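Our consortium's second objective concerns turning raw sequence data into structural hypotheses that experimental partners can test. To show how far this objective has progressed, the report includes one record in full. It was chosen at random from the queue rather than selected for favorable results. The single chain below, 256 residues long, was entered without modification.
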Amino acid sequence: MTIQPLHRSTPAVERSRELELPPGSWHGRLWVSDARLADPAFYLQCVADFERTRLWPVLIPRDERFAANGEDWIDDRGRLAPAEHKVPLVDPAAALDRWWDSSCCDGACLRPFGARFPGLTRRPPRRSDPLAEAGNTGSVLAAHGEYRLGLVQTERPADIPAILGWTGMIKSTDQVAELSAVLRSWEERFGATLIVLGFDALELSVSAPPRNQGRALAVAAEHRAFSLPTFAAQPGNIREFASGLVHTRHWKFSWA
């Protein structure tokens, strides 16, 4: 099909014409299909075409909070100013350190950590292809859930929140460039790739998850700093949270 831009033609619009897309439209810098993605294999195709098109596919889940009122958060909720130009200037370790909150309990839930963020964990020694992992995980999700397809022109998936001015984490921070900087760091160290973009939730495929409890514990500290609501919604302490990350190739975060 031919995609009609909202105003004038852009490189993203021109590249989208190279794909056999289902009916959909541009919402600023985000193209979204009108209906549920019916063919999970099409997500795999979009991932495979990314190096040529530079359009990264994200799955946009159905959100009953908006569907009940006939709303769509993509159009009916505000956005922050695009901030992709700021992402390279951000130190992800410093951002996570600022977000670290040790006041949620008496300290027992954080052991062996304390009042200060413990720092970034080192990169695992081995990993599979991140894009192949993303394509496989995304297509499995699409086969078992109700998602629209989104496309964003980007050099790397981590930058998408900053490109769009995404507000999903607004309850915790309005610094969307910092969020994308952490996602960049995870891309580089863990092959963690953005595959799901919701109103206030993100999901990543992971090609190099932690392989043991010690590595997972360090990663759990980063997760907790990144999204305290996600950690708080889980029962138990940070050691138990870490156990759930060992060999886990699908990371989920929510700021609901």
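The partners drew two points from this record. Confidence is low (pLDDT under 50) at residues 1-9. The longest strand covers residues 55-61. Both points have been shared with the crystallography group to help prioritize constructs.
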